[in-house]
Each structure stands twice: as C-alpha cells, then as structure tokens.
C-alpha cells in the first residue's frame, strides 16, 4: 500500500473477528518489519510479548481491566522497552566493524561511550520507552499494510502483567497493541490539529 494511503487508513480498531487466527509466520513478518525501526546506536530497545493462546489472552484481558478486544484479537502484544539494551554495544560495534563502518580500534571507545551514556537510570528508561514506541508505530503500519487492524492501548496494569507473565525486571511494559482481522473503522476520523497548531519554527522566543 502506498504510504500516505496507509497512514490515512490506519485507525485504532476495537472490534475483532474472534474466530480469525493469524499464522505465526504472519505475526513474525510484522515483527520483523517493526524491527527495522531506528534506535540510538542501533541498540534496538524493543521486545514483544505476543499472546495468542486463549487462556493467556483471558489473563491479559483481566490485566487490561476487562477490555474485550484483548481476547477477541488474534494476538495481543505487550510492547516492552529494554533497559539493558546498552549492554549490546559490543554486538553493534562488531557489526559496524564487519561492515566497514568503523575501524576495529574504534570498538573500545564506542562501547565505553555507550556504557557511560546509559549510566543514568532516567536515560535508560527514556530510551527504552522511546525505542519501543518507535517500533510500535512501525508495527501498526506493517500490520495495516498486510490487511490487519491494530489498536494501541495504555489501559492496563503493568505490574499485573509483569507478575502474571513473568516479565523480567529489565523489560518495562510501554504499551499494548491488539492485532487481528478487525472491523475497519468507517466513522469520520476524529479531530486532528493542523500543521499551524503544532509547528513552531526556529524558537519559541
């Protein structure tokens, strides 16, 4: 699908065909596209908890305060931000060296710079949320391009999800996304602020 059409047609869909089952291959294709998202130093701060089994979706539904779309969708995805992504700096450096982006003697300096930058816990958290959010938007566009609907969600108890799904401490729930064959939204799109309302050129002074 041409991108402007895709962006215009993507909507947050709340009703899904509960009998429709996406294949594992389809879901993974969408995730692979999401993984093309940008991130600082290519650290890729995202991880995806994909819930497709009926009993697990019912548990996730409880953690999302009973919202029906969580269990009706083919998959409900918890988008997680990785607080420890900076620890992959060695992998990034090795890849850059292999591709000729950086000389081998630059590896130690790059790894040290990355580790120093992420010493601050607030930066770790901000970057985890930022990276996961970029991947989440790509995921939604990729799903729409394949004919599937999505809905991003913040209506859930992150600590309940952490407990019920044994989420490791270094992964933080950023948002949920329902994914499946949905009833495409036909209502007129809600109000959007125009460019003149959301742009300031050069400075606020």
Automatic annotation (TrEMBL):
Its EC number is 1.-.-.-. It comes from the Bacteria. Residues 6-33 form a coiled coil. Residues 9-181 form the Nitroreductase domain. GO terms for molecular function: oxidoreductase activity. Keywords: Coiled coil, Oxidoreductase. Pfam families: Nitroreductase. Gene3D superfamilies: NADH Oxidase. Belongs to the nitroreductase family. This is NAD(P)H nitroreductase.
